[in-house]
Design a protein that fits this description.
Layout lengths: L1 E9 L8 E7 L6 H11 L3 E8 L2 E7 L4 E2 L3 H15 L5 E6 L2 E7 L4 E6 L4 E3 L5 H5 L5 E4 L3 E5 L3 H6 L4 H5 L5 E7 L6 E7 L4 E4 L3 H15 L3 E6 L5 E8 L2 E6 L1 E10 L1
Parallel strand pairs: 2-3, 4-6, 11-12, 13-15
Antiparallel strand pairs: 1-2, 1-18, 3-4, 4-5, 6-7, 7-8, 8-17, 9-10, 10-11, 12-13, 13-14, 15-16, 16-17
Length: 261
């Protein structure tokens, strides 16, 4: 099996920033075990597999260790591959996924995705979470996928040195930490998902599907400029639109080639 591969830095205008994703266009999905093996070989947070479906595409996402139901940055990267390489000049694409149809539009500065919002509920701080983070959260909420912990300040989010092994033992697949923003950003965040093979994800679309309604409730507005404060870092424009979230960002191509599996 030979197929093209693209490596794209998503949610950034600068190469080596944002979140890198591999995008692999194929005529039909290979066996799950082979896709997982290729994702492990690529050794990026996500590898996206694209299959043409009429005028749309089917899309699946794999971390180095597992398939996931939603990945924002690899969807953004897939949009760039479709609209800049596979079908230059195209302005909109719909991906059919485990999270339903996801529409992406090209903008003057990048791409705008429409994703399902993830609504969370306040909970008592789970056993072991404060110890894993090394700080006591101001509050904790949770959805079906992640814990979301509010910290006191943006600097506390940046300075956090969590116990990744302890986070991997939590009963949800990831932990988001967030705080009010400083400078031009409404809020900042980081995301840890070692149970999915991602100790810290550089810039996470799925996390912002939860962060956007969370901050909309706290700040009483629906549009935000967000920053994910990982080592690579990345900016996302976020909008809450009823039960959906619009995430907007740019992409930069890093690698284009061919693989044999």
């Amino acid at each position: 099996m030979r197929t093209r591969i693209y490596q794209v830095d998503a949610f950034t205008t600068h190469r080596f920033k944002g979140n890198p994703a591999a995008v692999m266009p194929v005529e039909a999905f290979p066996a799950d075990a082979l896709m997982q093996a290729m994702a492990a070989e690529n050794n990026l947070a996500e590898t996206a597999f694209l299959v043409p479906d009429g005028g749309d595409y089917r899309l699946r996402w794999f971390t180095p260790t597992t398939e996931v139901p939603l990945c924002g940055h690899a969807t953004l990267a897939s949009s760039a591959v479709v609209m800049e390489r596979l079908e230059p000049g195209r302005r909109r694409v719909v991906f059919h996924t485990a999270s339903g149809p996801l529409g992406v539009d090209r903008t003057d500065s990048g791409y705008r995705m429409n994703l399902p919002a993830r609504l969370s509920k306040p909970i008592p701080t789970p056993s072991g979470l404060a110890e894993a983070l090394g700080v006591d959260p101001v509050e904790v909420v949770a959805d079906a996928f992640n814990y979301l912990a509010l910290l006191e300040s943006a600097q506390a989010v940046r300075d956090l040195v969590p116990d990744i092994v302890a986070i991997a033992r939590m009963d949800l697949s990831g932990v988001i930490v967030t705080a009010p923003g400083d400078g031009p950003h409404d809020f900042v965040s980081r995301y840890f998902a070692p149970a999915k093979g991602i100790p810290e994800d550089p810039v996470t679309g799925g996390a912002h599907c939860a962060l956007t309604p969370y901050w909309a409730n706290r700040l009483n507005k629906t549009e935000f400029r967000a920053y994910q404060a990982s080592r690579r870092g990345g900016e996302i424009i976020c909008r809450l639109v009823r039960d959906r979230v619009e995430l907007e960002g740019a992409c930069v191509f890093y690698l284009e080639g061919e693989v044999e599996a």
